Amino acid sequence: MRRLLKLWKEQSGAVSIYLIIILVPLFLLCGLLIDVARWRTADKEAENAVKSGVRSTLSAFSPKLAAYGLFGTDLTGSKGDEIFKQTVAGNLSGAAEPGQFRFIDQRLEEDSAKVTPIFVLSNHTIFKQQILEEMKYRAPIIYALELTDKFKKTGLDAQLNQASKFAENAVKVQELLEERDRKLNEVWDVFQAIRQKSEVLYPHYDTQLRDLNTLSEKIGSPAQENEYAALLGSLKGEAALDDTELSKHKDAFSEAMKLTKKANDDLNDEISKIRQPNGSDQQLRAEDVFNFVYLIDRQELEQWEAGVGTAVAQFSSVRVQLEDNLIFTNQKYSATSTALNGFKTKVDEWYDRQNKAQTERQSKNKATAAAKREQRAKAQPILDEFRRTIRSCSLVSNADLYEESYRKLQGDPGTVGSKGFYQTYLEMNQAAGAISPVSTVNLKNPDQAGSSSLKLVSALEGLLTEVRDEFYIDEFAVSKFSYRTLGLEKDAFGRPKTSKELSNPASHELTNQEVEYLIYGSNTCSGNYSSAYAEMFAVRLAIGTTEALLEPRNEALAAGSPLLVLLAAVTEGAIRAQADMTKLVQGEQVPLSRKLSGVITLGYKDYLRLFLLLHSRESVLLSRMQALIELNTKQKLYQMTTYVSGGASTSYRLWFLPAIMKLVGNSEFSGCEVRGNRCRMTKTADFTY
Q1: What is the pLDDT of residue 615?
Q2: pTM for this predicted structure
Q3: Cβ distance 46 to 683 under 8 Å?
Q4: C-beta of residue 588 within 8 angstroms of C-beta of residue 604
Q5: DSSP string over 230-255
Q6: What are the C-alpha distances in Å from 676 to residues 204, 470, 654?
Q7: What is the rounded distance in angstroms from the CA atom of residue 329 to the CA atom of residue 674?
Q8: Cα 166 from Cα 439, distance rounded (Å)
Q9: Where would you tag: which of 31, 297, 301, 552 has the fewest CB atoms within 10 A of its CB?
Q10: CB 607, CB 649: distance < 8 Å
Q11: CA 85, 89, 93: angle at the middle one, nearest 5?
């Protein structure tokens, strides 16, 4: 024991040195660990403070836009920076009450807080994304309940498409039929001229040839020879003239027959393409009319042409017999008479064969033409009345009240280069506009109305397939904006329907006309109402026409005129459409189809959904929506930020690291810039709605 105490006393100074050598690094290491822990805490605190600052900036969204399901904040000026700065500073430990111990004393560096707007609501991609988020839950349900089920499950879309094809075929066949009949009339007229000529020529030449034969038997007397020669010379001249005239008639007949055969072939070929066997799937009964179309076999026309050629050739034989300078013997008389009789017999034969058919055809065509005039006369007043009422803005007490609103939307038409909200948003997105609607409906007369309306609705079969983004956008339009019958509609109990949308469409500047503007883009109430009314009438006309084509009248079918069947159906459809439109613009529901859909009904709003699909032009629709939203909210969407990036620099006091940093020769580490005894850090954060 004494030896150990002695050894301790002898080495006590050395142990102290050893302890110092060991304790100092341990102390420095502990200080380093403490500052590292403080750095990690400060780093996380700065990150959270900046994120909170950006979120607080986005929290200042526009309530007016939020009513549309859109979120954006106006960061123009210093408003955004101030919110960001205050939030970041308030979330740092340096903002704690003074006089208390603080593990870190982090504070915001002067003039370092800054927010940067990146995306704005004027951008179509951003605007569309927010619309899809707003509508993604309810739009598919409405799509299925209001449109797809009503058209698809009833089979009406297929029937409309079939009716459209029938109208197209009917017009084409009617044109070919009328062309064939025009050419056939020309052939018949020329043939009748030949027949009338034969009625004159035959008795004349028959008498003259008989006299010439009698005189030839008395040749020997100078007086008889002079009379014979005079008669023969006269007949030669007449035969030459008559043969030439008949040849011209024959050439005219052949040329007319050539065109007739071409027209007849075209008609027969078209009929063979479109005729369907009775009872085939999806066949309209109206298609039976193609089985009643009067057709002519090409062989019959060729035989007729050959018969006329033979008849004229027979008369040419009479001329040859007269011009051969041989004595007119009994044998020659017999041959000449046979040729003359052959000419007359052949003409009469083909006249007898064609007269009844051509007379009946022409008589039937006259009756059909009269029936078509009758149907046009019935339908035309309805179309005329439709055009008189089409431009009515009956729900707007004074359309001039909205002139200034339309000027803001569309620009001043009287000022060159004037741009409204719509054009501004369109150009911001580098999109091309369209002045007029995509499709046009011609309802001026019954002939055009039927085909035009059926062509319009035939596009529905391709549109009503599946839920797509564009329908979400369309449903946003009819939900957030006003339309003509808003406020007039009633529920199943007869109570007025009110919009529950926060955007309150009933209070908008363009009263009861916004959706129509979105679809058609006219700068007047009447212009937008007219376009919507015309297309709605066309859809109802097409449906009514299709229903009539399912059960056409037998007399119309028997007439063999596809156009007559179509006109009769258009007349019935126009009468029904007129009654339906009166109800629709009053906010009532009408049956989708009285024959096919039963109790399924559609209202004015539902037809606007259809027209939004038919006129699908995304860039145009989005720009018009943005224009209306600016008009209603007074918010410039190109100033409304949806994506914000914020950045700020903070600093806190270091306890031990500055000395250590000097020892190792560094001034920063892992995002910490050491300035004196303080650590400066810069943090950024990005957030979007």
Answers
A1: 85
A2: 0.80
A3: yes
A4: no
A5: HHHHHHHHHHHHHHHHHHHHHHHHHH
A6: 139, 60, 9
A7: 144
A8: 20
A9: 297
A10: no
A11: 165
Residues in CB range of 73: below 8 A, 6 or more apart? 57, 58, 60, 61, 62, 80, 640, 641, 644
How many beta carbons lie within 10 A of that of residue 337, not counting itself? 17
Look at residue 684 and give its three-state secondary structure: strand
pLDDT along the chain (689 residues), means of 10: 56 60 67 77 90 92 94 86 90 72 82 90 95 82 64 74 90 95 96 95 93 81 77 91 95 96 96 73 81 94 95 94 84 92 95 93 94 94 85 55 92 86 93 57 87 81 66 91 93 85 93 95 90 93 92 89 94 94 93 76 90 87 96 95 93 75 59 82 91
Q: Which two tokens stand for residue 505?
A: 């469409």
- What local confidence, expressed as pLDDT, does residue 395 receive? 46
Q: How far apart are the first and last CA of the chain?
A: 80
* CA–CA gap between residue 524 and residue 502 (Å, rounded): 26
DSSP secondary structure of 505-529? GGGSSSTT-HHHHHHH--SSHHHHH
Query: Whole-angstrom Cα distance, residue 65 to residue 477?
Result: 14
pLDDT, residue 671, reads 75
Q: What's the rounded Cα separation, in Å, for the pair 284 and 162?
A: 7
> Do 186 and 253 meet the contact criterion of CB atoms below 8 Å apart?
no
Sign of the CA dihedral running 576, 577, 578, 582:
positive
* Buried-exposed string 41-69: b where 16+ CB fall within 10 A, e elsewhere: ebbebbeebbbbbbebbbeebbeebebbb
Q: Which residues pair with 686 in a beta bridge?
A: 645
Who's near 381: CB < 8 A, 6+ residues apart? none
Name the E strands within 428-573. Answer: none
Distances 71 to 61, 637, 668 between C-alpha atoms, Å: 6, 10, 41
Q: How far is CA 560 from the centre of its chain?
A: 34
Report angle CA 127, 519, 125 to the nearest 5 degrees.
15
Contacts of 449 (CB under 8 A, 6+ apart): 379, 383, 442, 443, 538, 541, 570, 574
Give all strands (DSSP E) within 543-593, no chain letters: 590-591
Biggest CA pair distance of the chain: 201
Distance CA 679, CA 414 (A): 64
With 0-12 / 13-18 / 19 or more C-beta atoms within 10 angstroms meaning exposed / middle / buried, residue 475 is: buried
Which tokens go with 546?
């299709």
Q: Which residue is listed with tokens 């983004």?
A: 469
Q: Collapse the DSSP code of 136 into the 3-class scheme (helix H, G, I; strand E, B; otherwise coil) and give the result.
A: coil
Are the beta carbons of 422 and 409 closer than 8 angstroms?
A: yes
Q: What is the CA radius of gyration of the chain?
A: 48
Phi-psi map region of 553: left, alpha, beta (phi>0 left; psi -120 to 50 alpha): beta
Q: List own/partner pairs for 47-50 with CB under 8 A and 24 or more apart.
A: 47/683, 47/685, 48/91, 49/87, 49/88, 49/89, 49/91, 49/92, 49/648, 49/650, 49/683, 50/88, 50/646, 50/647, 50/648, 50/683, 50/684, 50/685
Q: Which two tokens stand for residue 615?
A: 């006129």
According to DSSP, residue 121 is labeled: T
- Enter the DSSP assignment of 152: I
| 355, amino acid identity | N
Q: What pLDDT is recorded for position 436?
A: 46
Supply the DSSP string of 49-114, one letter for each residue: HHHHHHHHHHHS--HHHHTTT---EE--TTHHHHHHHHHHHHTSGGGSPTTS--S---EEPTT--E
